[in-house]
Amino acid sequence: MRFCPRDGTLMIPQKKDGITVLKCPKCGYEVKLTEKTKEAYRQRSEVSEERKRGVMVAEERKIEYDQEEVEELRRQLLENLQEAERESD
């Protein structure tokens, strides 16, 4: 992988006039992609495909608390914050 010498952004391969160049998506800086660099990108891509994993999606649940539970949670939070402040002093 190569980073832009101007702003440090990751450069991405693109086709331009029949050749492949590395281009910075932020500032537009370009450099010709050599065969050695093409092979490195190709190998990295193949490894990435092998390591694909399933994606877990969190389901939003509505949780209802009564007023006493809310007050207890608030009290515990305040105690934890005060304890953390004492430890940091």
Written account of the structure:
The protein is of the alpha+beta class. It has a domain at 12-50. 43% of the residues lie in helices and 15% in strands. It is built from two helices and three strands; from the N terminus they run E-E-E-H-H. A three-stranded antiparallel sheet has the order 1-2-3, with no helix packed on it. A hairpin with a 6-residue loop joins strand 2 (19-23) and strand 3. The longest helix has 22 residues, at 67-88. The mean pLDDT is 77. InterPro entries: Zn_ribbon_RPB9. Keywords: Coiled coil, DNA-directed RNA polymerase, Nucleotidyltransferase, Transcription, Transferase.
- Tell me about the largest β-sheet: 3 strands, antiparallel
Cα gyration radius (Å): 25 Å
Annotation field: number of helices: 2
Could you name the ranges where pLDDT drops below 50 across 5 or more consecutive residues?
Answer: none
As a percent range, the share of strand residues is 5-15%
The structure class reads: alpha+beta
Strand order of the largest sheet: 1-2-3
**H/E series:** EEEHH
CA(first)-CA(last) distance: 44 Å
Q: What is the helical fraction, as a range of percent?
A: 40-55%
Shape: elongated
Q: Give the overall average pLDDT.
A: 77
How many strand units?
Answer: 3
Oligomer: single chain
